[in-house]
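[User] Once you have settled down, look closely at the record that follows, and write a paragraph about the fold.
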Amino acid sequence: MVRVRVPATTANLGPGYDVLGLALKLYNTVEIEKSDRLSIEIEGEGADSLPKDELNIVYQAAQEVFKTVNGKPLIVNLKLINNIPLARGLGSSAAARVGALVAANRLIGDKLSQDEILKIAARLEGHPDNVTPALVGGLTISYLVEVKSHSRIPGNTGMAKKEVKYLKIGLPEELKIVLAIPDFEVSTKKAREVLPEEVSLEDAVANMGKTALLVSSLAQGNLRLLDIATQDRLHQPYRAKLIPGMERVFKAALANGAKGVFLSGSGSTIAAFSIGNSEEKNKEIGQAMVSTFQKAGHESHYKILDIDREGAVCL
């Protein structure tokens, strides 16, 4: 039996739309073993709602490994222990797929390289910003490039013609993320549908500058401008209609000691950077965010998380 732990992720970090991702110390676990009949057991998040048959995305991702390496499926037992909330912008689907790919690959003797696993994960997920930090940990800058060489990764259109290039950025050891996780879901599909097909050159340039400032600030540990660096013009203003009280939660986090604040992925979670704050101050940030969400008509809870720097690991 193979057991893999995979972290939650927060993507975009404000201006780094579909490019930046950060792994957090909140984990799902995937257990897999060969069997003569399919069995899927789920504990925690999604235990009553996620499919327990061939429609389960963990099962589907595992089969991608088996078909890529051996050209045929493999019957398995799966046990999923889920601590990452669903549809809250914390990379639950990326964690599911990455955990499945790493576990299935280990089950058959690690036939695929990490780059091959990442390519499959990005194709299944549709973009690399969550799957990259889920696989390798830390803060990552990832993007897709066209490739001319043939690959054993199946498929011949779209993502199959691209591979992921990424860099992992060093971070201050004392950096923490304070999350406010509300009681409502936002699907990635819906969150993408509200975005415009075109943006102004001014907005694009603003986001490029903020993304560069954000990465530089975190890499250097110089957080003086982090509140400005986490501002965004490409997606957060449009998604605000899906997140009641979003701007007010932002202001509450900053007023109580956060260094920067942003929508986690496509939401509904809001995330704040904290560095150099006491545990009590971090609790104040979380409580302020929760209180502001409540005033907007929604219950929520907060978590204070460290950065995961390992990514998916076999236990």
Notes: The mean pLDDT is 93.
